[in-house]
Specification:
single chain, 93 residues, three-stranded antiparallel sheet
């Protein structure tokens, strides 16, 4: 089961923007390029400054909070990103 049980974000001290979970689904409602359905999390930068996502992590294990590091992507103000919880370490555009 690919449900996200724990989502941890570690905010660096130099970032004054706010990263928030805008939406999420644990019902496997989004298909990837292989036709597999996946759980997903949509993040949004609600602050006025860009955020470098590579300083944040997702995990479904409380004992491994650094399980998956988000990619080197900068989110501008009010920009969103959809992350599929597929178990694959791939980047789709």
């Amino acid at each position: 089961m690919r449900s996200v049980l724990v989502i941890l974000f570690f905010l660096p001290t130099y970032v004054f923007s706010q990263l928030a979970i805008n939406e999420f689904s644990s019902k496997g409602s989004v298909k990837d390029f292989y036709g597999n359905t996946n759980d997903w999390v949509e993040l949004i930068n609600t602050g006025s400054n860009p955020i470098d996502l590579s300083n944040y992590f997702l995990s479904d294990k409380i004992t491994n909070t650094f399980k998956w590091q988000l990619p080197e992507v900068k989110l501008s103000s009010m920009q969103k990103i959809l992350i599929l919880n597929s178990g694959e370490d791939k980047r789709y555009r």
